[in-house]
């Protein structure tokens, strides 16, 4: 898939081993650090998701180390749900997140109507990113991930339908 800069990032399904390795760096970046996610918990989640073939990674080369990770859970509210999207800080702004979302759309819109994602209400960067990609806010989910925090639920419809 191509990123915003026109660069192409190979996207591949992650093995359980590869997915599990990514938990450590994800736990150290926002919003996961502020929400209290541990590296161990993220490793377990990523391994479970990879065993269900729900983890996708993007790298600079086909065999390269992952620069970004996407977990796409199928069959949520007549669509699929982006349960996790993370890009290594040193690779931010290169279009990796955009390429991973485009990959999720290409898989989802084959037979599903909606692609959903949620972001912490205080994560203005993530909310702006998703809006730029055509997602619209459809709900608020208070205390979903952590007490005192609200998640904003966003969705994008097939063929740009809001």
Question: How do you describe this structure in short?
Answer:
The chain is 28% helix and 29% strand.
Description:
With 162 residues, this protein is of the alpha+beta class. It has a single domain, classed as Gcn5-related N-acetyltransferase (GNAT) (Aminopeptidase). It contains five helices and seven strands, in the order E-H-H-H-E-E-E-H-E-H-E-E. It has helices at 16-21, 23-27, 39-51, 96-108, 124-132; strands at 11-13, 55-58, 68-76, 79-87, 114-120, 136-142, 150-157. The protein has a seven-stranded mixed sheet. The longest helix has 13 residues, at 39-51. Residues 2-6 have low confidence and may be disordered.
SSE layout and pairings?
Elements: E1 11-13, H1 16-21, H2 23-27, H3 39-51, E2 55-58, E3 68-76, E4 79-87, H4 96-108, E5 114-120, H5 124-132, E6 136-142, E7 150-157
Parallel strand pairs: 4-5
Antiparallel strand pairs: 1-2, 2-3, 3-4, 5-7, 6-7
CATH superfamily membership, which one? Answer: Gcn5-related N-acetyltransferase (GNAT)
Uncertain regions: pLDDT < 50 for 5+ in a row?
Answer: 2-6
Taking the sheet with the most strands, its summary is: 7 strands, mixed
Estimated helix fraction: 25-40%
Question: How many strands in all?
Answer: 7
Indicate the CATH topology: Aminopeptidase
**C-alpha-based Rg, rounded:** 15 Å
């Amino acid at each position: 898939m191509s990123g915003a800069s026109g660069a192409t990032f190979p996207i591949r399904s992650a093995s359980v081993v590869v997915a599990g390795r990514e938990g450590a760096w994800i736990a150290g970046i926002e919003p996961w650090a502020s929400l209290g996610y541990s590296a161990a918990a993220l490793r377990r989640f990523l391994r479970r998701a990879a065993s269900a073939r729900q983890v996708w990674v993007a790298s600079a080369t086909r065999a390269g180390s992952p620069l970004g990770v996407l977990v796409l859970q199928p069959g949520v509210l007549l669509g699929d749900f982006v349960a996790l999207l993370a890009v290594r800080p040193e690779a931010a702004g290169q279009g990796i997140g955009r390429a991973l979302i485009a990959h999720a759309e290409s898989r989802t819109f084959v037979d599903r109507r909606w692609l959903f994602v949620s972001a912490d209400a205080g994560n203005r960067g993530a909310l702006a990113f998703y809006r730029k990609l055509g997602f619209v806010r459809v709900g608020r989910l208070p205390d979903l991930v952590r007490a005192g925090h609200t998640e904003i639920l966003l969705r994008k419809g097939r063929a740009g339908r809001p």
